[in-house]
Automatic annotation (TrEMBL):
Keyword Isomerase: no
Keyword annotations from UniProtKB, A to Z: Oxidoreductase
Source taxonomy: Bacteria, Bacillati, Actinomycetota, Actinomycetes, Mycobacteriales
Protein name: SDR family oxidoreductase
Family: Belongs to the short-chain dehydrogenases/reductases (SDR) family.
Gene3D superfamilies in the record: NAD(P)-binding Rossmann-like Domain (3.40.50.720)
InterPro entries cross-referenced by the UniProt entry: NAD(P)-bd_dom_sf, SDR_fam
Domain of life from the UniProt record: Bacteria
Pfam families per UniProt: adh_short
Length: 273
């Protein structure tokens, strides 16, 4: 008999434990891959879904237990299919949805291609919304369920030269606050994770804030913050919605709350202009 299995008296049946599970959109690379890896290494059932099928296959070759699938987050039907596919491996439950997929465009608004502008709104806003909508039925029946929305420190104050991206993260912030209240009755915790620039493809542009602040965060540090937020044992912190990643992001967020608006504007102009 396996020593790890509890001894059962005659007539008793094993206690079935619902597996802890996380579904990560945009999970093939960057922060999404780091989050998936963090939870995989901790024994969770993990699904990484993306439009990049080739990178997903490479990721799965590293972790054969990883569940993968194709997902365009702007397509409601694909969300339904992807979550049904993943939860078929988790007894129909879902502990965490990580709404990670996102895109960015660099340059003044007059220089950005209209299709790129539309993609930022569609993926960063509509994609997050459709993901939450599709996941609700699974989250509401799972104890300790979390919706993780990937926000950004760029939602502290509107950032020039990445205006559509920055504005889309204000949407994520407001959406997270609204759902935290709306889903309170279902005991689903909703969080907005707000990192500064991290060492991913999204930070490969020439925004002034990248030059002035630098790119110091790693995807693994963001994944660690998400892990910490999901496993918060403190009753006070369990009512937090926004989680900054890194001290500079935290300082900027609190400065924006308490400093006069003219000072906040001046600081952001100095950083990003």
């Amino acid at each position: 008999m396996n020593s790890k299995q509890p001894h059962l008296a005659t007539g008793q049946h094993p206690i079935h434990v619902t597996p802890r599970s996380i579904f990560v959109s945009g999970g093939a690379t960057g922060i999404g891959k780091a989050v998936a890896t963090k939870f995989l290494d901790s024994g969770w059932v993990v699904g990484a879904y993306d439009i990049d099928d080739e990178r997903l296959a490479e990721f799965q070759s590293e972790y054969p237990q990883l569940i993968t699938g194709h997902l365009d987050v702007t397509d409601a039907e694909q969300w339904d299919e992807a979550l049904a596919h993943f939860t078929a491996h988790t007894d129909g439950t879902l502990t965490v949805l990580d709404n990670n997929a996102g895109v960015i465009g660099f340059g003044d608004i007059t220089e950005q291609d209209p299709d790129l502008i539309a993609a930022q709104v569609s993926i960063n806003c509509t994609g997050v919304t459709l993901g939450a909508r599709a996941a609700h039925q699974y989250l509401k029946k799972t104890p300790g369920a979390h919706l993780i929305n990937m926000g950004s420190a760029s939602s502290i104050y509107g950032q020039p030269h990445i205006a559509p991206y920055s504005a889309s993260k204000f949407y994520v912030q407001g959406f997270s606050q609204a759902l935290e209240l709306e889903w309170g009755k279902d005991e689903i915790r909703v969080l907005n994770i707000m990192p500064l620039w991290a060492k991913t493809k999204l930070a490969s542009g020439n925004a002034e804030s990248i030059k002035r602040l630098g790119v110091h965060l790693t995807p693994e540090q963001v994944a660690d913050k998400i892990w910490q937020a999901v496993h918060s044992a403190n009753r006070l912190t369990r009512h937090r919605i926004m989680y900054s990643v890194g001290l500079p992001s935290l300082v900027m967020r609190y400065a924006a709350r308490f400093a006069p608006s003219i000072v906040v504007r001046w600081i952001n102009k100095l950083i990003a202009q």
